């Protein structure tokens, strides 16, 4: 069942079209990574998908309903969005910051339901490993801790759909992996813009590759991040190496990689779905 779907979506900034004819279909409980070079339109697409800016063309559907036709409060109950570089106000306590995720559920001008909200806030902070800083001011947090607090606010919003812009930014490797594992464990539908292609390949069900104003490739990581695609889009050598201990394949990036063999390129896997291929299929 489609949780998030777009039809012929185009996104623009100041009247300039950045992306055209984007068709996404994200199933309930699925995790999709959005990748592309800087300036490819990832953040603009995410802002359009959560209703913060109107599409230049096309439509966005959440559980079959036109997202941009919903009231702001109703959208906030359906989609939780965590932007890339938001800074929590330094004077707020961590618990107060995370509790802002509960605002869509409060009646206008209502006081906080402190008992219920505190339980939700504690669960969200526990999920990101920061329950011990509940009563600490936000300006006493490190960059990585602030990032995790913002993610906890998104979790506290208790939406089935999470849209995240670079969720692993400012996190060390251990916390990057823990965060992605936590997102998986929630069972929620996740769409996340990612810079780290290796993380995208290892932790996501689908990968959408933006390139030159279009949705260039969409498919499982094994196909969407096939070495030829990575080289074409990101202009960097790529190959896949098998872990001798587990047999799992890992995407390896950078110069000096071993020569690609036919098996490592194809892996007997289907061809990646380019935008044109998906149009022909329809």
Automatic annotation (TrEMBL):
A GO molecular-function descriptor: ATP hydrolysis activity
Q: Disordered: where is this region?
A: 261-282
- Per its UniProt record, what Gene3D superfamilies does this chain match? P-loop containing nucleotide triphosphate hydrolases (3.40.50.300)
- Write out the biased-composition intervals (Basic and acidic residues): 270-282
Top-level taxon of origin: Bacteria
- Pinpoint the ABC transporter domain residues: 4-237
Q: Per its record, how is this protein called by name?
A: Iron complex transport system ATP-binding protein
Keywords, A to Z, come to: ATP-binding, Nucleotide-binding, Translocase, Transport
InterPro entries from the entry?
AAA+_ATPase (IPR003593), ABC_transporter-like_ATP-bd (IPR003439), ABC_transporter-like_CS (IPR017871), P-loop_NTPase (IPR027417)
Note the Pfam families from the entry.
ABC_tran
């Amino acid at each position: 069942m489609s949780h998030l779907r777009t039809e012929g979506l185009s996104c623009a900034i100041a009247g300039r079209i950045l992306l055209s004819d984007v068709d996404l279909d994200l199933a309930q409980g699925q995790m999709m990574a959005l990748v592309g070079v800087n300036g490819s339109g990832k953040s603009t697409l995410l802002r359009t998908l959560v209703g913060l800016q109107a599409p230049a063309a096309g439509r966005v559907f959440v559980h079959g309903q036109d997202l941009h036709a919903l009231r702001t409060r109703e959208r906030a109950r359906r989609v939780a969005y965590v932007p890339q570089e938001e800074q929590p106000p330094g004077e707020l306590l961590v618990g107060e910051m995370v509790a802002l995720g509960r605002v869509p559920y409060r009646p206008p001008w209502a006081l906080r339901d402190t008992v219920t909200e505190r339980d939700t806030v504690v669960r969200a902070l526990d999920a990101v490993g920061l329950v011990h800083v509940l009563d600490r001011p936000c300006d006493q947090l490190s960059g990585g801790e602030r990032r995790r607090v913002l993610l906890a606010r998104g979790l506290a919003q208790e939406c089935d759909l999470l849209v995240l812009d670079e969720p692993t930014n400012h996190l060390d490797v251990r916390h990057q992996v823990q965060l992605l594992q936590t997102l998986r464990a929630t069972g929620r539908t996740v769409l996340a813009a990612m810079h780290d292609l290796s993380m995208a390949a290892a932790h996501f069900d689908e990968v959408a590759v933006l390139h030159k104003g279009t949705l260039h490739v969409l498919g499982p990581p094994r196909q969407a991040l096939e070495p030829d695609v990575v080289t074409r889009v990101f202009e960097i050598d790529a190959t896949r190496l098998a872990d001798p201990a587990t047999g799992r394949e890992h995407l390896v990036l950078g110069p000096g990689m071993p020569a690609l063999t036919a098996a490592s390129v194809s892996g007997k896997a289907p061809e990646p779905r380019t935008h044109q291929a998906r149009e022909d299929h329809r």
